[in-house]
UniProtKB/TrEMBL annotation:
It comes from Halorientalis brevis. The lineage of its organism: Archaea, Methanobacteriati, Methanobacteriota, Stenosarchaea group, Halobacteria. Gene3D superfamilies: Dihydrodipicolinate Reductase, domain 2, NAD(P)-binding Rossmann-like Domain. GO terms for biological process: diaminopimelate biosynthetic process; lysine biosynthetic process via diaminopimelate. This is 4-hydroxy-tetrahydrodipicolinate reductase. HAMAP family: DapB. The gene is dapB. The keyword Oxidoreductase applies.
Length: 253
């Protein structure tokens, strides 16, 4: 049984992680952290984020699952290094400095970061290389849709899809288009829509030669991300200090 802490316990994803953990017998949520003034989520005690180091020392989780904001994750990394706690990071929107702080932490504790913990997105990422090999000169466009509370744009997942495309095609992103905006052969349009409570939709299209190929994914419930993050936490508990990705968990199956 892997003991987990949940950073951002009162948030949309934090609550879903705690609910999902409750239905599993390989992980147990032992403590949550949040800046929101809540005492507990479900039956899990929530400690204020100011006291995260003390909370980790008291409840001794193996791994912290983090779905917050970048500033919180970076502060959490210091506490995890101090207490020898592994990190599963779902938060998106890091700048270079934040990302480097997490990489530095991975020299002391195991750190697994994924912009998307759904297995379907992992499958989509793996399919991109093969697909683009068959349509090497088709125009590429990338679109994502998320709920109206999402802070960062484009989504972390869209950035990961873009990076994966760029491993196979020399394309430069153009974020939205307006006015006189003819398309270049070597560009990929990237579009972010924000509406309602959409959990997460991503679509990469490749068009040319009188056809359109679409690689798309829809998350229908946040529990898909929670399940992946908990799979990652259970796996990470047995690993040494290093940097890991969600693909490592899938490869290990
Ligand atoms: P949310 O706003 O509902 O929840 C964030 C929570 O973090 C809130 O409860 C907030 O009070 C808390 N928080 C803020 N600052 C904190 C701090 N310093 N210490 C502790 N807690 C703090 O957001 P959400 O929808 O749950 O998303 C959170 C993050 O997860 C976003 O970056 C989002 O893009 C990302 N996300 C990733 C995946 C994935 O699969 N990797 C899936 C969904 C969401």
């Amino acid at each position: 049984m892997t003991r987990i802490a949940v950073n951002g316990a009162a948030g949309r994803m934090g609550q879903t992680v705690i609910e999902t953990a409750d239905d599993r017998d390989d992980v147990e949520a032992v403590v949550g952290f949040d800046v929101d003034d809540v005492d507990q989520v479900q039956d899990v005690p929530v400690v204020h984020a100011d006291d995260v180091t003390e909370g980790l020392a008291e409840y001794e989780p193996d791994v912290v699952v983090d779905f917050t904001i970048p500033e919180s994750t970076v502060a959490l990394a210091d506490a995890c290094v101090e207490t020898g706690t592994g990190m599963v990071i779902g938060t998106t929107g890091f700048d270079d400095e934040g990302f480097e702080a997490l990489e530095a932490a991975s020299e002391s504790v195991p750190v697994l970061k994924a912009t998307n913990f759904s297995r379907g997105i992992q499958a989509l990422l793996r399919a991109i290389g093969e697909a683009l090999q068959a349509v090497p000169d088709y125009d590429l466009e990338l679109m994502e849709t998320h709920h109206n509370q999402k802070i960062d744009a484009p989504s972390g997942t869209a950035k990961t899809i873009l990076e994966t495309v760029q491993e196979h095609r020399d394309v430069e992103p153009v974020y939205g288009r307006e006015g006189h905006a003819p398309r270049d052969d070597d560009e990929i349009g990237v579009f972010a829509r924000r509406a309602g409570d959409v959990r997460g939709e991503h679509e990469l299209i490749a068009a040319g030669n009188d056809e359109v190929l679409s690689l798309s994914h829809h998350a229908e419930d946040r529990s898909v991300f929670a399940a992946g993050a908990l799979d990652a936490a259970a796996w990470l508990a047995g690993q040494n200090a290093d940097w890991y990705e969600f693909g490592d968990v899938i490869d290990a199956q």
